[in-house]
Each structure stands twice: as C-alpha cells, then as structure tokens.
Amino acid sequence: MSAGATIRREGVPVVFGVACLLALIALIEVLIRIGMINPFIVPKPTDIVMSFERIIMEENILPRFFLTCGEALMASLMLSVAGISIGVLLHKSRIVRLATETWVAAVASAPLVLMYPLFLVIFGRSAWTIIMIAFVSALPPVILKTLEGLSGTRPVLINVGRSFKLTPSQLYWKILFPSALPTIFVGVRLGMIFALINIVGVEFLINFGGLGQLVNELAERYDLPGTYAAICFVILVSVLFFISTERIERWLRPGT
Amino acid sequence: MAQTGHLTRAPAAAGEPWLGPVTRLRIIILVAIIGTWELVAASGWLLRDVVPSILTIGRALAELLGHPDLKVTLAGHVLWMPAFYWHLYVTISEVATALVIGGTTGLAVGLLLGANPFLAKAFERFLYYLGPTPKIVFFPVMIMWFGVGPESKIAMGTLSCFFPIVLSAAAGMRQIEGVLIRVGRSFRLNTWQMVTKIYLPAMREPIVNGVRLGMGVAMIGTLLAETKLSNKGVGFMIIDAYNTFDMPRMYAVLLTLFVIAIGANTLVGRASRR
C-alpha cells in the first residue's frame, strides 16, 4: 500500500471525528437560535468563542494560568522528591516494604482530596493549601510506581553490575535507577496529572488562586458564556499538559 | 537475590509463630504514629484543635456513629438514628446512581468503540484526552442543567466515572482473543448473544478494573460537589464540620469515609481476581 493511501486510511476517521464534533457544535447553535435549548442555560457556541477575548483581556487569564502552573510545578517537585525518595527507601528495606506497601496502596484508593477543609484550617486560604492537598493526594502513585520500577529491574543487569564488582551505591546509580527511570516517570506523570486535577479543583472549591477560581467567579457572576469559555480554557490547558507529559514518557520508553 | 518483584508472606521468626516480624513492625509503626500524634496534640505546637487527641477523635467517632440525633418516621413509627447514616445513604445512593448511569453508557460506548476501529480512531482520542481533566469545573454547568439538588451531584459522579469505564471497556474489547470471537461466530450467535456470551465474560477483568477506577472518581466527584453546594451527604458533613470548626468531627467523618472507600475498592478489586 502506498504512503498516500495509508495517510488517507488513517486520516479519514480523524477528519470524520472532528467533523462530527463541529457538526454537534453547529447543531447546538441552531437549536439555541430556534429556541429549542434555553440560552440562559446553554449559551450560543459563537458567544462562548467571542467571550474568549474578553476573559483573556479582562480576567487576567495569563497571570492566573501562571499561578496555577506555578502551584502545579511546586507540587510536582515536592511529589518527585518525596515520592521517589520514599519509594527508594521502601525498596532498600524489604521488611518496611512488606509492612507498609499495602497501606500505601490502600491510601492511594482513598479520596484524599476530601481533606481540603482540614488543610484550609492548617494552612489558611492560601496557595499552600492547594499545593499541599495536591502533593498529599498524588503521592501514593509516585511511591508505588518507583517501587515497581526498582523491583522490575532485570536480574541480568544486576548480575552484570555485580560481576563488575560495583559497590551498592554504584549498583544503585548505574544500574537500578536508570533501569527503573521510565517506570518512575510513569508514576511522576500520574502524580502530576492528579496534582493538576486537584489544584484546579481545590482552586474552584475554595475560590482562591488561578484558573479554578476564574470558573467559580464567572459562574457566581452568572456570566454564562464566560464560564463556558473558562471551562474550555481549563480543559485545553489540561489536555496540553497531558499530551506534553505523554510525549516525554514515550521519549523515555521508546518502543512501548 | 531476594525476590522483590511481588509481595510474599514473610516467614515467621522462630519461636514466635503467631507474630511475624512484619506484623511486629506494623504494630511498632502504628504505635509510633499514634505516639507522635498524641505528643503533638499534648504539646500545643500546633493549634490545639488542628491536632486533637486520639481520645477526642474517638469520642467524636462514637458520637458520629452511635449518637441518635435524627428523628425519622418510618411506617408511622418515630425512630431516632445517628444523622451520619442518613447522609451516608444520600451519598451512597448518589454515587451508585452515577455509577449505574455512567457505567452503562460507558460500557455501551466502550463496546461500540472496541468493536468498530473506524469509530475508535474517530472518537477515542477525544475521550482519552478528556479523561484526565478536572471534572469539578463542570459543576456550575451541572447546577444550571440539573439544579442544586442531588441530581447535579449524580451528574458530577456520572461525568467522572464515564471516562475510565469507556476507555477500559474499549481497550478490554480489543484484547479479546480472536479465537473466542471465531467460536461465537461459528455457533452463529447474534449480536446480543455475542455481547453477553463472548465479549462481556472475556472482558471481565478490564471492565471490573474500569468500574473500580470509575467508582473512585465518581465518589470524589460526588463528594466534592457536595462540599461546594449541598445540604446533605457526607461531603456536606465535612464542610459543615469545617464551617462550625468542629475538627474532631471532621476527622471522624474523614476516617469513616476513607475506611468505606478503601473497603469498597478492595471488594471490587477482589471481584476482578476471583
């Protein structure tokens, strides 16, 4: 099959998907215009698009975006340092791991973000509440994936290291850690995604900070097109974040 | 080299067959955590109410679960029960309804995408990229669409659990062995029979896994929505304890909630391995 035919075969469904999405948006626009959908509940898609400019110019969307990004970056840094260190420590001490790994897995399944009122009391209504709740609720997957990565090192690699008489610390830094890095990054990426979701969510809930607060404020002002536009912006930011971290993950694990 | 790839039961130390080293370490860790907590509570390093003594939390827990403070009339009889169970019932019914609606639609769409490569290529990427976005920002929209009652919380739960279930179902369908599908076809099963006799049984593990993930996010979506705008449910209890600055009660509600969430997750997880 020629390359052109392959591109056409791959491209047709993608174009069809995008066309369906655009058709759905057009249908909603028509239904609102003919009065089938209440415009006070769903604003016209054209109004939403028009209000993008307004929320960018008037609602300080860029500083808000950077604030949310800064919080996410801080939480991700803390997550990576703490999560990987705890994972390494648990891997080093087998008995501590046996005693606590099931606990970490259990905590990972608890809705930890619900502790945000507790963090509000401890840290006040500040960026630290948001960063800390994101850090705590996203920590377990980083620990578990670090452990999984270190334990999954192929024995042959470790034997090679031993045959070169590497010291335990050399074995760790030259063999175990590099081999576990792709899996560790899967955990860090998972943690970063959890952190971003929780950061925007808590910003919205406590009405403080960046993009989440913007959605809340516009909704409280009953600025419908603005609210929908802000939600679209939040979705856009998270999708871009998701795609870029996915690219890094693919780069780290070629062939998967 | 010691096998570290999976957990094995640690051999019990000689002479102490009933208490292995792992159990002993767990007890030590628990005692250390409780001791540190009590020390911080007694020292006054942090605000007294932020870290209340374990005894105070225990009392709040007993009051939460055992103190009958809600009057209910059931078939003409007046009964008193702890209000927590009523709030828990509200939340569980919201999460369960969300899981039924989101699970059924997710499963149906997942089966469709799994069976049809064209549709999968056209639409699955949208679902895949929308999956890990913060759903709670849709809450103002859900309030406008469904009102301030339980319906908007159910909608939040549904929206949250739809994505993991649809993606697991689509991926699960694609990994079914071709031989099973050919067996079904050679028996001339119709579409419904193919779904119920071949596809669903062969996909049990990914589906249960999707439901487990979906249940977790549905619970988070519903509870967060309850903390934002509600007058009932466990989420409301948490934010109510915050508003009245009743920290022991907040710890008690959170602890009970975590135990229930972890228990439900373990139960569904066991179902996939059975």
- Rg of chain A (C-alpha, Å): 23 Å
Name the helix and strand elements of chain B from N-terminus to C-terminus, one letter apiece.
Answer: HHEEHHHHHHHHH
Q: Could you tell me how far the N terminus lies from the C terminus of chain A, measured between alpha carbons in angstroms?
A: 25 Å
**Span between termini of chain B:** 31 Å
How many independent structural domains of chain A? 2
CATH fold descriptor of the largest domain in chain B: MetI-like fold
| Tally of individual domains of chain B | 2
What spatial order of strands do you see in the largest sheet of chain B? 1-2
CATH superfamily of the largest domain in chain A: MetI-like
Low-confidence stretches of chain B: 1-8
Shape of chain B: globular
Number of helices of chain B: 11
CATH superfamily of the largest domain in chain B: MetI-like
CATH fold label of the largest domain in chain A: MetI-like fold
Question: What is the string of helix and strand elements of chain A?
Answer: HHHHHHHHHH
CATH structural class of the largest domain in chain A: Mainly Alpha
**Main sheet of chain A, how many strands, which sense, barrel?**
none
